[in-house]
Amino acid sequence: MPCCNGRCLAASFLFLLVFNLAALNICYSGQVYDSGLELIYIESNVGGASGGHMALKINKNVYHFQQFADGYFRLKRDRWNHFRLIYNDLENRSLFVAETPCPSRMTDSIEGRFTRILLGQERNFENLAALRKDMELFDSMKYGTGYLDVEGAGLFSAHETDVSPYMAHLKEDALSVLGQTYLADQLACVERNMKNLAPSSLSSISLPGARVDIPPLITTYSTKLQELISLKLALTWLRGERAANRGILVDAGPLEPCVHEKLRDFAASIRKSATGLLASSRPDRGRALLVQMIRYQAVMQSLETGRLVITDPFPDDTGEVSRTALMGDLETLQLLIQDAESRLARAKKNICSTKNMDEFSYNVLENMAARWAEITKSRYEGTPLRISENIEIPSRGKKIGIRCFKGAAPDIRHLVQQARKDHDLYAAKLKRIYSYNLITSNCVTELVRELKKAFLDEGTMTQAFTAGLDPGPAAAFVPFRFFDHWVSHMNVLRVENLPSYRKRMLAGMYRHENPLRVYLRECNTMTSSIYRPDHVDSSFLLFTDDTVLPRPVFGAVNTAYSALTAASGLFTLPFDRARRIKQGFWGIIYSMPELFFANIRKGSFTWTARHTEN
């Protein structure tokens, strides 16, 4: 999760040696406070992380700029525990945290600006996605029938004969409150609107000007059509009392009496909410209604069976951990199951301690239960493990065929050209706003730039902060150099070193085992009980992140080992798509700084148990 990508590798070689000595001047202390500003320097690792990383912690939130897979360089906000899991554990990188006193008005100003940036980002990329959908839909409609991916359309069965008795409750409520012909009348109205909604291009689009700008929402043809299709499906399935799609409802274990009681009240709340959605004028009420309908089936099935049944909330594009990776570390997998059980139990306890269950509480329960069920299934059935870091809302999608409406066919080619022009114009603007540059726009420079603007906006820039945020050209873009400047010029209370996952595990072993035996076993990738070679990492044999004097010798061994790996890759080339050759090549590259007492590569982990970090 880089902000300084592989292009700063050469510069890193020179600076890392200096930092190994400079870091000795940093004092270490105990637990980090949750007040004021805390600047975080994250040590380097392979790939895009070779130059290190910089972040800012305010209370429990961590803000940092990073380059995403789509090429855009954006601000990210993580909860502190999640940030540590990713960088300190999975990426196996030590953190240095400088606690800096800061008046509350200044931290409020910083968080306010960062929040506006995040809102602007969300709106910008929502607009870009809408423009892309228009472009793709029009392009496919050139040949008569296009396809639109509609969120929520995959939640229910495609067969009319699959009915659910619970849907009759929602249907009866709607008819009794809104009238016996309401559903039919609404469905006819939606179908008329769909027929009258001819494909059209946008008259104009409003382009963003800066990171902090929040542009207006762009409502495209595909957006309007998707909303109408969602509402049509919801009305059709409600009238036909359609059952849930196979596999969408998940059994998440026994149902405790207190949760049973809360779910009974929540079911009544859903019935009232569904009727309210039907009567509302919300343009997105179709998707919201689909979610309420599927959740009602899950809740009622829970009440009837005495088991916690929830709707699968994982998005369609959720990442997966392979079965091979899972089965390769059953001990950690079991710890993760225990962690998931603990989180699910905590969600249930929170629900039982509240007077009424609201949608947010149920959403948390839904996600914790789904994750426990997913990891348990992976453990005992050997299936890939889906992973998601967010609290998700059920949204299983489905592609819906869209025919080219009569009379619109001659204009489709023009619509394709205009939609592509609008999309490319907006994308080009975002590329300028969210661009990465090694020297002028990286994780350090953007963080400093936004800090200055936040202080100036509120008129709170002090002389101390002015000096701390102006390190000069030599340190302005290098993470550890800027961190050293911050520590030297700001009124830092203390700097805490949070060792990487491997270093923490080693420290525990040294305390309880023979140190020499531990070192000989853990110094290499072949016999290590902590680290398991991963295809993501480059090839290497000896760890050099926890040793200094032997580092050049270890680096020479790693270079030779990587060269042998690359050579052996010639024989496996037809089978592994040059994976071993690439691992060997990058192994040589990352072994070179070790020859000069510097270290970049530390190894990484597919996952670790979060609660083992201490």
Range of strand content:
5-15%
Main sheet properties:
6 strands, antiparallel
Supply Rg.
28 Å
| Uncertain regions spanning at least 5 consecutive residues | 1-34
Describe this structure in words.
The longest helix is centred in the N-terminal third of the chain and has 38 residues. The N terminus is likely disordered. The protein is built from 19 helices and 12 strands. A 6-stranded antiparallel beta sheet has the order 4-3-2-1-5-12, sandwiched between helices. It has 614 residues and is an alpha+beta fold. A hairpin with a 2-residue loop joins strand 2 and strand 3.
Feature tags:
alpha+beta, about 625 residues, disordered N terminus
In short:
By secondary structure, the protein is α+β, with helices and mostly antiparallel strands.
Topology:
Blueprint: H1 9-22, E1 37-42, E2 53-58, E3 61-67, E4 73-79, H2 80-90, E5 95-100, H3 104-141, E6 145-150, H4 167-178, H5 182-196, H6 221-239, E7 249-254, H7 257-279, H8 285-305, E8 307-311, E9 319-321, H9 323-327, H10 330-352, H11 359-381, E10 385-387, E11 398-403, H12 409-433, H13 443-458, H14 463-468, H15 479-489, E12 494-498, H16 501-512, H17 515-522, H18 551-576, H19 579-591
Antiparallel strand pairs: 1-2, 1-5, 2-3, 3-4, 5-12, 6-11, 7-8, 9-10
Helix pairs in contact: 3-12, 3-13, 4-7, 5-6, 6-8, 7-8, 10-11, 16-17, 18-19
